[in-house]
Amino acid sequence: MARVTVLDSTLRDGAQSEGISFSVRDKMRIVSALDELGVDFIEAGNPGSNPKDIEFFREMRSQKLANAALAAFGSTRRKGVKVEDDEGIRSLLEADTETVVIFGKSWTLHVEKILRATLEENLDMIRETVAYFKSKGRRVIYDAEHFFDGHAANPDYAMASLRAAAEGGAECLVLCDTNGGSLPARIAELTKAAGAIGAPLGIHAHNDSGLAVANSLTAVEAGAVQVQGTLVGFGERCGNANLSTIVADLELKMKLSCLREGSLPKLAAVTRRVAEIANVGFDEGMPFVGLRAFAHKGGMHVDAVIKTPASFEHVDPESVGNERRILASEVGGRAVVIERVKRIDPAATRESPLVAQVVKRLKEMEALGYQFEGAEASLDILMRKAAGKYKPFFQLGHYRTIGEQPSGDREHCAQAMVKIAVDGVDEISAAEGDGPVHALDLALRRALERFYPNLSEMRLADYKVRVIDLPGAGTGATASTVRVLIESADSDDAWTTVGVSTDIIEASWIALVDSIEFKLIKDLERRFKPYLS
Fold first, then answer.
1. In this predicted model, what pLDDT tens digit does every residue of 413-437 receive, in sequence order?
2. 355 and 423: one domain?
3. C-alpha span between 86 and 532 (Å, rounded)
4. In-domain check, residue 135
5. For residue 461, is it within any domain?
6. Each residue of 357-383: pLDDT tens digit?
7. Is residue 170 within 8 Å of 141, Cβ to Cβ?
8. Which of 33, 178, 365, 390 could form a disulfide bond with 384, CB atoms 3.0-4.6 angstroms apart?
9. Model-level pTM?
């Protein structure tokens, strides 16, 4: 297979995204995740821009990576300053990375209005900076900032900036769509034109027109041999090209090698782990890696995909570390139940008593106001109960919540106390929270972590309440039945549970217990899977 190298810029360009702030420890954990996935380069920050990046590069000197090369990022020398005297250049050398990524100006607007340099001096800055790092034994990747906009303004000068980097010894010339406004046809045209320089080319696309992935793939088709982006797609403004989509397309659709061999099945888990460390909401609609990427709901679709997966799936979910999800809903059919029951009882068929029992129980629960389409974790527990394969991890003694308004100078406005028992051992815990459900969640997990330490990895990602109208309920307004959906996550997965009651605290408790038990079940099964297979 032909090879395309991958440079991940989560720790540099991604860190420029609104709301993102990495600690040194965060950065090191993300490096570990990307190295495990098998990307070629990790652009880890600009050591000349802030003390945190200086500390990070210092810490990384003692770390050995298995697959990726760490790269420090910085600009060409400043105008009027010798390259060896430039403080930014010195900081890049002191970062002590084998690879450096240098960016320079391709657009006359930036040269004249931002740098306030002459066009010839800018070319000297590019050429001399690249040559200096080559003389110091560094590998140099050159980012031609604003290349496509620069070419539109002055084609000859944009190409001259690339030639200056090539003359300095850059091993890859990266064409940057820095403003994210280019269309695929333009990307293809200029990538082919730049190929005449004779140096390997890369692409760095932003998503301001919603085309970063398309533009990256188009550039590869036109001859680029390196793609840059961020694994989860976040970055400045509308984000960078989403590498989780790009690498899957390159390997599965374009038959190009771009990750360490055998690493693609880790894609979904590593992408989710990076999002978790960055503390950003995970877009479950992301191609290949999101929970909805292989979710099927309509009865005819479900029936078809069970018989022939390729009928409604463009790739095998397992090829990227994801899984097929069959959604239970009013537009689904018996096939939906059968497919999900098989995860618990592989021998189940359409005629199995268990299937009929689950269908009956589903209808009973839906009549009470439950909806399992978006709460597969609760559905999983319901089916385990129907199959006789459920054992509670704890028993509730009682819980109590207290709200306080006004709360005065108190930091929290609610308290909760929980008494539970695990294998006959009682535990009582209390907590304060920003509301009764938050306090209840904290108190319950505090009590359980004594017995199940892995619960410390879990967090509640979202909480939704909906008032529902039930036929013949005869109540309304504040006495209505409510449905609570709780989305939970750890570093590997996300799952959703549901609870229904006329008491919002009780509905929340039901969903909360399902969420915790699902976490414990999946961790238990994962731990023993090697012994069962």
1. 889 999 999 999 999 999 998 889 9
2. no
3. 61
4. yes
5. no
6. 887 888 888 888 887 877 888 988 988
7. yes
8. 390
9. 0.75
Average pLDDT over residues 40-69: 93
With 50 as the cut, is the pLDDT of residue 331 above it? no
Task: Give me 46's structure tokens.
Answer: 């600009």
Beta-carbon count within 10 A of 491 CB: 17
Distance separating alpha carbons of residues 201 and 330, to the nearest angstrom = 51
What is the distance between the alpha carbons of residues 501 and 63, in angstroms, rounded to a whole number? 52
- Tell me: the pLDDT tens digits for 245-303? 999 999 999 999 999 999 999 999 999 999 989 988 889 899 999 988 998 876 677 77
- Altogether, the residues listed in the chain come to a count of 533
List phi, psi (to 5°) of 97: -95, 145
Overall number of domains in the chain: 3
Strands (E) across 310-377 are located at 325-326
CATH of the domain at 222: 3.20.20.70
Helix or strand (DSSP H, E) at 308: none
Q: What is the CATH number of the domain that holds 310?
A: 4.10.430.20
In our burial notation (b when 16+ CB lie closer than 10 A, e otherwise), range 226-241 reads bbbbbbbbbbbeebbb
Whole-number Å distance between alpha carbons of 238 and 47: 25
Domain match, 400 and 340 both: no
Q: Which domain holds residue 429?
A: 394-438
Can you tell me whether residue 329 is helix, strand or coil? coil
**Nearest alpha-carbon partner for 379 in 300, 293, 496, 299:** 496
Q: How many CA atoms lie within 13 A of 274 on its CB side?
A: 29
- Chain-centroid distance of CA 102 in Å reads 27
